[in-house]
Design goal:
The structure is a homotrimer of 163-residue chains. Chain A contains 4 helices and 6 strands; from the N terminus they run H-H-E-H-E-H-E-E-E-E. Chain A is an alpha+beta fold and 163 residues long. In chain A, strands 2-1-6-5-4-3 form a 6-stranded mixed sheet. The longest helix of chain A has 16 residues. The radius of gyration of chain A is 16 Å and the shape is globular. The N terminus of chain A is likely disordered. At the A-B interface, helix 2, strand 3, strand 4 and strand 5 of A face strand 3, strand 4 and strand 5 of B.
């Protein structure tokens, strides 16, 4: 492999930001079918509360360990969607690089998500941070691992939608 | 034109972010007289709901097709300002580059805006995204087109203020 | 000093963003003991309302003029913490560079902070902007001066926690 190729294959902070931004956009546009495409095939996707995460308790609110599992989740979400229509809007804060490897970056990104109901009512939905490991696979940057750590302990509504 | 000049004249993502940031700052500082200066003379400024935008319905909540029209709007807003004082704070998420042209970039940027009344009460005001076409005119980056797509369908208070 | 050294010692926007991001992360993780370490020894830390700041009134809500003063504040906060547990989440908007000096940058960054109580209730806590002077001291970027300008005039709960 030439040096130029190696550079092309590395993951930069700008790559990670673009990935996060496109990811949030797909969720907010409600295009859940595109959501698994942001992950590697053997990915790890978890939603955990900050209290459990801090105590090192392994029990997540939600866990998928493959892209296929994410597709199953999308299907379940869409079938279960018997509520009135509503939309989400994710706002990302700056990303903190925690680890740099040859083929991956680990970054932490705080976020909030607000929800709007069909009648226009708007509310805070969830806050927390993403802990992401981003790798380049076949030229595309993807989430090899994504942990969504939420500040809220009430989790019932969280299970229904990808974050 | 030399190559160096061409490079100076191109629009970078950093330029767009600086423009968006200064734009939000002017709105949040309440300096509405400076607002039209962020647009090209023959600009297009629209506020639309996400539902109408998604359906391709052309009816915007608000439409101005020139900088002069924006000045008119500022004047109307300031004359109509008979409410108790309040302030806005825009928070920008990351920007997604959707199109790159020789002299312009098209970017999508999610945002939320919170409002604070004089008594200190704070509330979510609006969420949505900007769809911006940014060009460089006379050395300055400006909005050639700005569409504010809002998640909320209740629009009465939205008409009063630039977003 | 060689030119290469000078470049290494300059403060870039990326440095400032990384500092702001790490700063917010420490506050949101509740690691207040690490908070003073983000400031130079002879720093200036102020919290002010936007109305007082705009009128040029010098009375801040809070003022510390040294890192030692910040440590005192942390101690007072931790001793006074008799409330039910709660957590904050800061979301940073883009940063606007206002001044560039050889050894420092002055930047303005809008932010909001949401609060989550132990029962999971989530609310808007404060919005405003940071006005920061960031310098490099001993290889590390630190806040030489940080003014937190808040949009809200009700200040009682603000005094208790660093922002």
């Amino acid at each position: 492999m030439s040096a130029a190729t190696a550079i092309e294959r590395s993951v930069t902070v700008a790559d990670v930001r673009a990935l996060l931004c496109a990811y949030a956009s797909v969720l907010d546009d409600g295009e859940l079918g595109d959501w698994p495409g942001f992950f590697t095939e053997d990915c790890l996707y978890r939603i955990a509360t900050r209290e459990n995460e801090r105590r090192g308790m392994p029990l997540p609110i939600m866990l998928c360990d493959s892209r296929a599992g994410l597709f199953d989740r999308v299907e379940a979400t869409e079938k279960a969607n018997i509520f009135e229509p509503h939309w989400y809007r994710h706002i990302l804060s700056e990303s903190e690089v925690l680890k740099t490897a040859a083929d991956a970056l680990v970054v932490k990104t705080a976020f909030i998500c607000v929800r709007t109901m069909q009648d226009g009512a708007m509310s805070l939905f969830v806050s927390g941070y993403y802990m992401d490991e981003v790798a380049r696979v076949g030229g595309r940057c993807l989430f090899r691992s994504k942990t969504v750590v939420v500040d809220q302990s009430r989790i019932d509504t969280l299970i229904a939608v990808p974050l």
